[in-house]
Amino acid sequence: MIEPLSESQVIENLRQTEDPSAQYYAAWWLGKMRSRHPDAIPLLLTTLRALNDTPVDPDRRGVALNAIRALGLLQDDRAAADLRDLLMSTDYTVREEAARSLGTMGSHAAAEAIRSLLDSGVDGAGREQPSSPLLQEPCEALLEALGDIGISDAATLATLQPFTQHPRPLIRSAACRALLQLTGDAAWGEQLIQLLQHPEPLVRRGALLDLGATGWTAAVETMSAAAVEPSLKLVALKGLAEQSSDPAVLDAMDALL
Amino acid sequence: MTSTALADAIRHLDRASSTPELVQATRALCALQDPEAADTLINVLGFNNPAVAAVATQGLIQLGRNIVPTLLVSLDARNYGARAWVVKALAALRDPRGLDLLEHALEADIAPSVRRSATRGLADLELDPACSDQQLQRCLQGLLKAGQDDEWVVRYAAVFGLEQRLRHASVGSSLTDQAVPMLRTLASEAEDARVVRLRAELALQRLNIE
């Protein structure tokens, strides 16, 4: 039986630089366990420096990506400026993870930088890269971050709206999710419910989780009945329950256990 | 001997390829209400297709407790999705013969969805009158253990189960002594998942516990 690591051991594992796999696990652990250790944030931020090396060491890049995710979970303002800088990284995945973390943190200061990455619209940011499944920008993460940050000014809504017509259903879903969060307009919820009937299971799962993130309780019954595995419905309804505190959502969850 | 109708339905199912076809063929198989269809329905649970598995699970539940012995020997070691559906069917049938399996699934299964379904089963498993006190103890012990699970969804199911057991059974005081503090802990800041806290608060409220 392996003894679980103590927090101070995990901190030392992140501090050393000989063994990147120990750092990789340590960065993940600190986020997962919501560590409040005083060295956690400074050490996680230190690992991000490896992203500026040329060439970037792939192992250290992995550590840095885990650190970005952990910084999002730890919700500490000291990380916001560094994460904002990473939105300008040439590395697609780094931009994607930085946007997700800034969204999780609800970082108002990041909203404009995130919006500017989307401003070129469906034919710019939303265009497919040649011979790659990726779009020019990590649109799904960027759209979701704007919804999570929660600034509903006209410029943000104007940036989001075109993406509700994107050819990819998961991008449409992310845009509708953000618009529903920002405006509370049921029309965006209805579009998400449409996507919940999509023939592709992956799209149904995405739309379900997006509905859960919005706290729009009108969707409870449709979500419960969706053709998606019960464990994922419970995750989506958890989001809804935590946003709304509506006991009807808890009843729906009980019925899915 | 397999009836012609059953053989036809199984053949349709074998030929189905798209999800709508599979759902329709599984519905037709369920509509026969033939206990001989149980093995085929259990097989369907392993397709990794939630729409089809949900229909098959309902069909199995409608076949009633005669199929419990079949369910008890049908856990697929390599497919946790299928195991979760079998445990779900077993939980819904509430047959006391399922107790050993539910306990073991909660104790040993690596998949949170399986532990969740097992916990749900312990919430309202019918007790064998010959040894109902002992079985109730085992159900409650399982629920208390589930309340300490690493996964929020298992702890959520534990709250649901403890509320059911405290509400319905004539529970001995020693068990209430442990179940109520567990609900209080799950309603407190010691619990990470807000949804578990909300559910535990609701349970305490419904049980009229301050």
Description of the molecule:
The complex is a heterodimer of chains A (257) and B (210). Chain A is mostly helical and 257 residues long. Chain A is built from 15 helices and no strands. Chain B is mainly α and 210 residues long. Chain B has 2 domains: 1-93, Leucine-rich Repeat Variant; 98-210, Leucine-rich Repeat Variant (Alpha Horseshoe), CATH 1.25.10.10. Helix content of chain B is 70%, strand content 0%. Chain B contains 12 helices and no strands. The N and C termini of chain B lie far apart (60 Å). The mean pLDDT of chain B is 91. At the A-B interface, helix 14 and helix 15 of A face helix 4, helix 6, helix 8, helix 10 and helix 12 of B.
Short description:
Chain A is built from 15 helices and no strands. With 257 residues, chain A is an all-alpha fold. Chain A has a domain at 184-257: Leucine-rich Repeat Variant.
State the share of residues found in helices of chain B, binned by percent. Answer: over 70%
Helical residues, percent of chain A: 55-70%
- Nearest-angstrom radius of gyration of chain A? 19 Å
Task: Look at the structure and give the mean pLDDT of chain B.
Answer: 91
Number of helices of chain A: 15
Strand content of chain A: under 5%
Q: Give the C-alpha Rg of chain B.
A: 19 Å
The helix/strand class of chain B is mainly alpha
Largest sheet of chain B: none
Backbone shape of chain A: globular
- CATH architectural name of the largest domain in chain B: Alpha Horseshoe
User: Which chain pair has the greatest contact?
Assistant: A-B, 19 and 26 residues
End-to-end C-alpha gap of chain A: 31 Å
CATH class of the domain at 184-257 in chain A: Mainly Alpha
Cα distance spanning the termini of chain B = 60 Å
Give start-end ranges of low-pLDDT stretches of chain B. none
- Shape by Cα distribution of chain B: elongated
Instruction: Give the name of the CATH superfamily of the largest domain in chain B.
Output: Leucine-rich Repeat Variant
CATH topology of the largest domain in chain B, by name, is Leucine-rich Repeat Variant
